[in-house]
Amino acid sequence: MKKLASLLFTSALCFAGVYDYPYLINSKEKYQDSVINKELMYGEFQAIIRFKPIYFNPSTNNITKDSQDYLDEIIKTYKKYEKKTTIVTIIGHTDVVQTKTEKVNQSWWYPTYPNDLTQESSEKIALSYATYTQNELLNKGIPKNNILIEQRAGLDNLYTTETKEGRDLNYRAMVTLYVKKDLDADSDGDGVIDSKDKCPMTPKGHKVNSEGCSTILNLTINYDVASYNITKDSNNRLKTVVDFMKKNKKFKVVLYGHTSNEGSNLKNQILSEKRALSIRKYLINQGIISSRIATYGKSSSEPVALNETKEGREKNRRVEVQLY
After folding, report:
1. Whole-angstrom Cα distance, residue 157 to residue 172?
2. CB neighbours of 279 closer than 8 A, spacing ≥ 6?
3. Which helix (H) or strand (E) holds 324?
4. pLDDT range class, residue 162, cuts 50, 70, 90
5. Burial class of residue 125, CB neighbours in 10 A (0-12, 13-18, 19+)
6. Are 262 and 272 within 8 A, CB to CB?
7. Residues 72/133, Cβ–Cβ less than 8 Å
8. SS3 115
9. Which of 113, 127, 248, 252 has the fewest CB atoms nearer than 10 Å to its CB?
């Protein structure tokens, strides 16, 4: 059963989070469609952690032992973020609710398929799963004000309904932890708060500009007219990038090639790509593995200066080197 559950759940992860909020189907007298619900859909978060399903036995509606134990893992994760602003959502589910026609047809072909669920009983059971899970998490230390519960009845099957095993696994509660992003925080310690930091992983100690980007790591390499050859001066500047990447293995680099507006769009696109690739080749020759390097050609679409002047065109013939 565990093997089947693993296979089925893995295939469902790609869409497991599409129905977060606002999606309430309960009476608004019980569950307010509030600002906080819309915030879960549109807000900014440091992390969104979706836990494994909390399973319930459809015959008894009792939580399974493995899921009871797994609640402690949820608490351990929550404790890592309890000093942050967090929201925990719990959504209860059951197997699909069949119509009378479906019950007749499927009882003919699959005598063991039909369940006894009605829309009303399905909602009640799903809500009981969410409420039980909520009470357990409350008892383990999560504040009530941090928890939102909902039921989705049989509207969101996570597993196949073609087997009894799969149908039984649809009786569950789904728990998600939302960790709000602190917009006043300075995660990389460079003196620029996260909400204004365009280079959020700049290592400590590097001098940065007003946008939080290191003046050492993020370089602009300029080129001669219609050329993608790296100049000697640029070679010397790129050495700082090579040295840094060799010492800091977790960092990668993205190379954005640009041109002035001289020539056709096609010609400029090809030239901008060749300029980015020229630096990629240089870095690889210096010992940086190719999987740490990404290249993009921007043609003449993003000028940094006026193309009407010689000086402006010189500034636009460039590759931007950004580490992250």
Report:
1. 10
2. 221, 230, 238, 255, 295, 319, 321
3. none
4. confident
5. buried
6. no
7. no
8. coil
9. 248
Torsion angle, CA of 114/118/119/121, rounded to 10 degrees?
Answer: -120
Tell me the C-alpha to C-alpha distance, in Å, between residue 265 and each of 168, 297, 313. 58, 11, 15
CB proximity list for 16: less than 8 A, separation 6 or greater: 50, 158, 174
Q: What angle (nearest 5°) sits at the alpha carbon of residue 226, between those of residues 295 and 230? A: 55
CA 311 to chain centre: 42
**Token representation of residue 175:** 């728990």
Do 121 and 113 contact (CB within 8 A), yes or no?
no
With tokens 């680099």, the residue in question is: 253
Residue 22, preceding bond cis, omega within 30 degrees?
A: yes
Tens digits of residue pLDDT in 187-238: 777 778 777 777 766 766 677 888 787 776 678 899 999 999 999 889 888 9
Contact between 263 and 304 (Cβ < 8 Å): no
Say if CB 231 and CB 297 are below 8 A apart.
no
CA distances in angstroms from 49 to 96, 182, 293, listed in the order given: 26, 17, 29
Closest-CA residue to 54 (of 67, 73, 69, 38): 67
DSSP-derived 3-state class of residue 143: coil
CB atoms within 10 A of CB 240: 13
d(CA 181, CA 200): 13
- Written as six digits, the tokens of 322 are 């950004």
The pTM assigned to this predicted structure is 0.50
Q: Which of 110, 123, 119 is nearest to 166 (CA)?
A: 110
Q: Which amino acid is at 219?
A: L
- Look at residues 288, 279, 257, 281 and name the one whose alpha carbon lies nearest to residue 270: 257
Distance CA 98, CA 105 (A): 10
**What does the pLDDT average to over 152-159?**
86
